[in-house]
């Protein structure tokens, strides 16, 4: 199930670097497709999910705060009657968990950040290809087994395949699953839609719910990468074939254009657009996700 993918550093970098890498299939936001996501017989990540984060580059406090709040929100349920009034981040995560039921397992997934490491000086430079991501993974996990490694890169860092097929990278290196996300504000504004204009996208540009384009775009991309890592961690889980030999996964199956046609709430105080509420009332705009039970795209609103 592995495929070759061309990774290129786009203009604006001092170095043009193109190379063929063998990776777990890349999920692309290629729009909806008639074929549903199906389980190809592979294992899913199940049970308690420990996450280790490596913050790569000088990432602002606001972005760290939003991302950590997102993780705390995944298993947090707002007590009634408030729960009926506000869409929940945990409801979005429940859809991710439901992939386990679709494959015959009871898959409650409590998530906990168990390790954080900081690399503010770009120890492997500002172009993170797979070879450079590899030595960062044990640092992210702190050597803890059964931990999902998460690499979060600051503005100005090009993460492998950003703008070249996938806004959020997830894969497997020597049996270590990982997710790698960059700040798309400068490197790939298309990955920051609907907070930044993007060619070919329809609908109004929306204000980020936390007032920081980088923070809210990274949460949105992280959510998609996390869903893919859980539902298709080894490249043989839930996915659908797309045109051009790529694949669609849990969130890339549902086109971003849904934001232009589905209901999105607006915070009356800040004007920020959101579709889910989590820890301490923090608001997020999460990607639509394929619901395996209804075989349709779903959002918290």
TrEMBL record:
<keyword id="KW-0052">Apoplast</keyword>
<protein>
    <submittedName>
        <fullName>Protein EXORDIUM</fullName>
    </submittedName>
</protein>
<keyword id="KW-0732">Signal</keyword>
<dbReference type="GO" id="GO:0048046">
    <property type="term" value="C:apoplast"/>
</dbReference>
<keyword id="KW-0964">Secreted</keyword>
<feature type="signal peptide">
    <location>
        <begin position="1"/>
        <end position="30"/>
    </location>
</feature>
<dbReference type="InterPro" id="IPR006766">
    <property type="entry name" value="EXORDIUM-like"/>
</dbReference>
<comment type="similarity">
    <text>Belongs to the EXORDIUM family.</text>
</comment>
<dbReference type="Pfam" id="PF04674">
    <property type="entry name" value="Phi_1"/>
</dbReference>
């Amino acid at each position: 199930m592995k495929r070759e993918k061309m990774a290129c550093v786009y203009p604006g970098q001092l170095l043009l670097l193109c190379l063929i890498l063998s990776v777990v299939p890349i999920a692309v936001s290629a729009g909806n497709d008639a074929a549903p996501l199906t389980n190809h017989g592979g294992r899913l990540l199940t049970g308690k999910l420990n996450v280790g984060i490596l913050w790569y580059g000088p990432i602002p406090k606001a972005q760290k705060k939003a991302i950590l709040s997102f993780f705390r929100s995944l298993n947090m349920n707002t007590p009634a009657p408030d729960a009926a009034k506000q869409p929940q981040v945990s409801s979005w995560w429940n859809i991710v968990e439901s992939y386990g039921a679709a494959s015959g397992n009871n898959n409650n997934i409590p998530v906990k950040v168990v390790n954080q490491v900081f690399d503010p000086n770009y120890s492997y430079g500002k172009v993170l290809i797979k070879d450079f991501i590899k030595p960062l993974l044990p640092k992210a996990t702190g050597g803890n087994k059964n931990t999902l490694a998460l690499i979060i890169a600051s503005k100005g860092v090009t993460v492998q395949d950003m703008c070249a097929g996938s806004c959020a990278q997830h894969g497997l290196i020597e049996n270590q699953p990982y997710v790698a996300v960059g700040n798309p504000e400068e490197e790939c504004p298309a990955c920051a839609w609907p907070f930044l204009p993007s060619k070919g996208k329809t609908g109004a540009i929306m204000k980020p719910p936390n007032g920081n384009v980088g923070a809210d775009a990274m949460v949105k991309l992280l959510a998609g990468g996390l869903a893919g890592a859980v539902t298709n961690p080894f490249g043989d889980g839930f996915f659908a074939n797309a045109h051009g030999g790529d694949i669609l996964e849990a969130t890339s199956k549902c086109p971003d254009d849904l934001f232009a046609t589905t209901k999105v709430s607006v915070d009356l105080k800040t004007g920020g657009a959101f579709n889910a509420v989590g820890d301490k009332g923090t608001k997020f705009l999460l990607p639509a996700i394929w619901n395996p039970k209804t075989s349709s795209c779903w959002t918290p609103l």
